[in-house]
């Protein structure tokens, strides 16, 4: 089974998969509303606006495992993202990305090494994974901005 076939639940409660988002690539990000990195929502939305017509989907997965920085309900999270960052990319049900209740999607994603060859647990909010249509995965750590050259290069290569 490909990472693109793992069942996920939208923030509105519908079942889907990354593959059903269509397109050539998905940038999967564990997000939080009360984090110092929360302003990355703006750059994620910009990526969505710039590249969605070419086949990129941004997918935000709220997670409350890092400093309890995503305490809200799905409705509160959706409202926060829309009101504060004009988010129009898909958001998903709040999940665990680490530990015994880790979502199966993140069990696959965290097996991927970053550029330094390190795999394992998500380090913090806003860790990013670029997943291509064929299931290849690239990992970018939380402090790497969504519009960093290495992410833009990877997105453009995936969409070529």
How many domains, in number, for the residues?
A: 1
The CATH topology, please?
Glutaredoxin
CATH architectural category: 3-Layer(aba) Sandwich
How large is the share of residues in beta strands? Answer: 15-25%
N- and C-termini, Cα separation? 24 Å
Strand order of the largest sheet: 4-3-5-6
Stretches where pLDDT is under 50 for at least 5 consecutive residues are: none
Helix-strand makeup class: alpha+beta
Mind telling me the CATH superfamily name? Glutaredoxin
Order of helices and strands: EEEHEHHEEH
Q: Largest sheet, described in full?
A: 4 strands, mixed
Structure description:
- The protein is α+β, with helices and mostly antiparallel strands and 160 residues long.
- It has one domain: Glutaredoxin, CATH 3.40.30.
- Helix content is 26%, strand content 18%.
- Strands 4-3-5-6 form a 4-stranded mixed sheet, covered by helices on one side. The chain has a two-stranded antiparallel ribbon with strand order 1-2.
Quick summary:
This protein has 160 residues and is an alpha+beta fold. 26% of the residues lie in helices and 18% in strands. The model has no long low-confidence stretch (mean pLDDT 95).
Furnish the topology, listing elements before pairings:
Blueprint: E1 7-9, E2 15-17, E3 25-31, H1 40-51, E4 56-62, H2 74-85, H3 104-109, E5 128-132, E6 137-140, H4 149-159
Parallel strand pairs: 3-4
Antiparallel strand pairs: 1-2, 3-5, 5-6
Q: What are the defining features of this structure?
A:
single chain; 160 residues; alpha+beta; Glutaredoxin; four-stranded mixed sheet; two-stranded antiparallel sheet; 4 helices; 6 strands
């Amino acid at each position: 089974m490909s990472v693109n076939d793992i069942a996920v639940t939208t923030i509105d409660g519908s079942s889907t998969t990354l593959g059903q988002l269509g397109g050539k690539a998905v940038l999967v990000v564990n997000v939080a509303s009360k984090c110092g990195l929360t302003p990355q929502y703006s750059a994620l939305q910009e990526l969505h606006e710039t590249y969605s017509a070419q086949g990129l989907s941004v997918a935000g997965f709220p997670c409350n495992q890092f400093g309890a920085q995503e305490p809200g309900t799905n409705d509160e999270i959706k409202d926060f993202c829309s009101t504060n960052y004009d988010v129009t990319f898909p958001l998903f049900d709040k999940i665990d990305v680490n530990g015994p209740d880790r979502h199966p999607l993140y069990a696959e994603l965290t097996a991927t090494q970053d550029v330094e060859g390190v795999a394992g647990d998500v380090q913090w909010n806003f860790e990013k994974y670029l997943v291509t249509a064929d299931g290849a995965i690239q990992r970018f750590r939380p402090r790497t901005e969504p519009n960093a050259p290495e992410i833009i290069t990877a997105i453009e290569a995936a969409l070529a």
